[in-house]
Design goal:
The chain has 386 residues and is mainly α. The protein contains 18 helices and eight strands. The strands form four sheets. The chain has a two-stranded antiparallel sheet with strand order 1-8. Helix 11 packs across helix 13, helix 15 packs across helix 17 and helix 16 packs antiparallel against helix 17.
Length: 386
C-alpha cells in the first residue's frame, strides 16, 4: 500500500499538469479561443502577482462578473494597487534586464580589489529599488532611461563618487552626474554585461540591442575567435583597439559593426560600474558612430539617442510584458496589438500601469492561441558510397 501511494505521489509531482499551468485546446484547434473565467483569473493573477488568484478574484470569476468589462477593469486596478504587484519587478523586470543573477559574473579581486559580496548585494538592491520606484509608482517607462536619481547606501555612494551618504541603509539620491542617468548608469547592468577581468562592448552592445531596442543580435558563427584579451608579451592596448582589429575580418564586421558601436559609449564604466577615464593606462575613447550613421560620444549621448526613439523602447517593453503575461513568444500575428498598445499609451506618456492594463485587455492575453502545427517529417535518402 505504501509503495502504491508513493508511486501515485511521484506521478502527480512529475506530471506536466502539475508543473505547468496548462490550458487545454478547444474549438477547431486552428483559431484562438476565449479563456474561461477561471483561466482568465489565473492568467491575470500569475501575471500581476506571480501567485494564485485570491478569494475576491476567484469569486468574481465563479459568479461570472469577471466577464463584465467594468468588473474586469476594477479587478486589474485593485491588483495593481496591491503590494503583491511587486512581483512585476522581481518576476518580470529584473529577468527582462538580466540582472536577477549577478553572481554570474565574478570580478577578479586583483583587478577590482574594492569589490565585495556586500557590494554585489548592494547592486541588486539598487536596481530593484530603482525599478520599483519607476514601475510601481506608475511613472513613464521612459524614466528607466532618463531618471537622474537612484537609491544608494554609503558603499554604493563611495563607488559612484557621491558625497554625504552615510550608513548601510538605502535612500533616494539625486544624481548630478549625467552619465549615471537611468539603467545605463547602474552597476548591476554594467557588471552583468562584463567579464570578470574586463569590460565587454560586445556584451553591452548586445544587451542594448536586445533589452532596450528589441532587436537581439545573431550569435557568432561556430569557430570564430571571441577572446579579445591582450596577448602575452604584447604592448598594452585598449579593448576598443583590439575590437577594431577584430572587425577587420569581413565576416566578423557584419555583426560587430552593429553591436560594438552601441557598447563602446559605455566604456567609461569599468566592470563594477566605477567611472574611469583610462583603460590599461591609455585614455578611454567612448565616441562611436552607430549603424544608422548617428554619432554619439559617451553614455550620456547614448541615452539621448535611445530617448529620441521612445516608441522603439516602449514597444520592446510591451512585447516583453506580453510574452511574460501569456507564457509564450510574441509572434508576428501579435505585433499589431503590441504597436496599438504603444500608440494608445503614448497619450499618457507611456505610464507603466497603462501598458500593463492594455496588455490585460488585449486579445493575446484574453484568448488562447492555437497550438503550433507540427512540421512535417523530412524524408531523407542516404546514397550508398561506391
Amino acid at each position: 500500500f505504501d509503495g502504491g501511494v508513493q508511486e501515485l505521489v511521484m506521478g502527480v509531482l512529475s506530471s506536466p499538469d502539475f508543473l505547468y499551468r496548462i490550458i487545454p485546446p478547444r474549438g477547431d484547434g486552428h483559431s484562438p479561443q476565449p479563456l474561461t473565467a477561471l483561466e482568465l483569473a489565473s492568467r491575470l493573477s500569475f501575471f500581476l502577482w506571480s501567485d494564485l488568484p485570491d478569494d475576491e478574484l476567484l469569486q468574481a470569476a465563479i459568479s461570472g462578473k469577471l466577464a463584465e468589462p467594468a468588473e474586469y477593469s476594477r479587478q486589474v486596478d485593485r491588483m495593481l494597487a496591491d503590494k503583491r504587484a511587486a512581483a512585476l519587478v522581481t518576476g518580470w523586470a529584473m529577468r527582462w534586464l538580466n540582472v536577477d543573477d549577478l553572481k554570474a559574473v565574478d570580478p577578479d579581486p586583483r583587478l577590482f580589489p574594492r569589490f565585495t559580496e556586500a557590494l554585489r548585494s548592494d547592486f541588486s538592491t539598487e536596481i530593484r529599488l530603482f525599478l520599483s520606484d519607476v514601475l510601481l509608482s506608475n511613472k513613464s517607462v521612459l524614466e528607466l532611461l532618463s531618471a537622474n536619481y537612484t537609491y544608494l547606501n554609503e558603499r554604493m555612494a563611495t563607488l559612484y563618487g557621491v558625497e554625504g551618504v552615510l550608513g548601510p541603509q538605502f535612500r533616494r539620491v539625486e544624481m548630478n552626474f549625467a552619465p549615471r542617468r537611468g539603467l545605463l548608469g547602474k552597476s548591476a547592468v554594467l557588471l552583468r554585461t562584463s567579464y570578470g577581468d574586463r569590460t565587454s562592448p560586445v556584451l553591452r552592445g548586445s544587451w542594448v540591442l536586445e533589452k532596450l531596442m528589441g532587436t537581439p543580435p545573431t550569435p557568432p558563427p561556430p569557430g570564430v575567435e571571441t577572446n579579445l584579451n591582450p596577448k602575452e608579451g604584447a604592448a598594452p592596448t585598449t579593448l576598443r583597439a583590439r575590437l577594431e582589429v577584430h572587425r577587420q575580418t569581413k565576416s566578423c564586421n557584419q555583426c560587430h559593426g552593429v553591436i560594438d558601436p552601441l557598447g563602446l559609449p559605455l566604456e567609461n564604466f569599468d566592470v563594477i560600474g566605477a567611472w574611469r577615464t583610462k583603460d590599461t593606462g591609455l585614455p578611454v575613447n567612448a565616441a562611436s558612430v552607430l549603424a544608422g550613421g548617428t554619432s554619439v560620444d559617451g553614455v550620456t549621448q547614448m541615452n539621448d539617442y535611445l530617448l529620441s526613439r521612445p516608441d522603439q523602447f516602449v514597444q520592446t517593453i510591451t512585447g516583453r510584458l506580453m510574452m511574460y503575461a501569456t507564457g509564450r513568444e510574441v509572434e508576428a500575428d501579435d505585433m499589431p496589438q503590441v504597436r496599438a498598445i504603444v500608440r494608445e499609451t503614448a497619450k499618457g506618456n507611456y505610464r507603466f500601469f497603462d501598458i500593463v492594463r492594455a496588455v490585460t485587455m488585449s486579445d493575446a492575453f484574453r484568448m488562447q492561441a492555437p497550438p503550433h502545427e507540427k512540421a512535417p517529417a523530412i524524408k531523407t535518402t542516404v546514397a550508398s558510397a561506391n
